[in-house]
Amino acid sequence: MSGAPVTGRPSRLNVGYGSWDLIWSFVHRVLVVNIGLAAANLPLLAALHLVDRPWRYPVFFGLLSLGIGPSLAAAFGYLRGADGDERAPAAELPRAYRRLFGRALLLWTPCVLLTAVAATDAYVLRHSALGLALVPLFAMAVLVAVGSGVAAMACLAYDAPRVRRRTLLAVSYAQVRRWPLGLLNLGLLAVALVLVNQAPLLGLAVVPGCVLSVVWRNFCSMAGTSSGPGAEGPGAEGPGAEAVG
Questions:
Q1: DSSP letters for 58-72
Q2: Residue 10 CB neighbours (<10 A)
Q3: How far apart are CA 37 and CA 32, in angstroms?
Q4: Alpha helix positions (H), 16-166
Q5: Per-block average pLDDT, block size 10, for the chain (245 residues)?
Q6: What is the pTM of this model?
Q7: Strand, helix or coil for residue 118
Q8: Nearest of 78, 72, 62, 61 to residue 101 by alpha carbon
């Protein structure tokens, strides 16, 4: 017994309007975030393109890297606005940049300083007698500083009116307590940096927005589970706490 031959044109993939709208909304958010990050960090990107060995100029590139924090805060602020409006206007990102710039710079600067000091100490002591014991600690300090800095930028977008003086301590505690999500965020950011370094134009056009969208979702999960009963956000300290900025 032989089956009848299959004839006719192959069936096409039918995607509903809602699915296409969701896809294009995500593409729109990614493009807005990527363009905003590239524009805000244009001096740093230009310097990295022109200088062959940037690690030889730590002070210069350290100062340029201070602009990364406010741009991340603006990106997270835009992503938070896009949660309720799938096609949030691109103008929301520069508005978030202006609104959060001062507080973001205030929180980002100590993270950059800690990262620079710990990385420099690890490099200097790597061949010394104390290096075997201290280098892993310095490496851990770098990971905590970078993770806390990114989480602090997300905290500004998540709970900007309630950001407290101990926000960095709160997000550092959340990074340690929810370390699987923290390591996932750091791994995604590291992969993004590698891809952008290997293919700058294509990487900047695609990768940062996708990665930051995942990092933002992870932070929202961390913030929702790291706050104790009655806490009002990741930076909550209780009544009477003073706001940053």
A1: HHHHHHHHTTHHHHH
A2: 5
A3: 9
A4: 17-40, 42-50, 58-65, 68-84, 92-125, 131-159
A5: 52 56 80 92 90 85 93 93 72 91 92 91 86 88 90 83 68 81 90 86 86 89 52 42 41
A6: 0.80
A7: helix
A8: 72
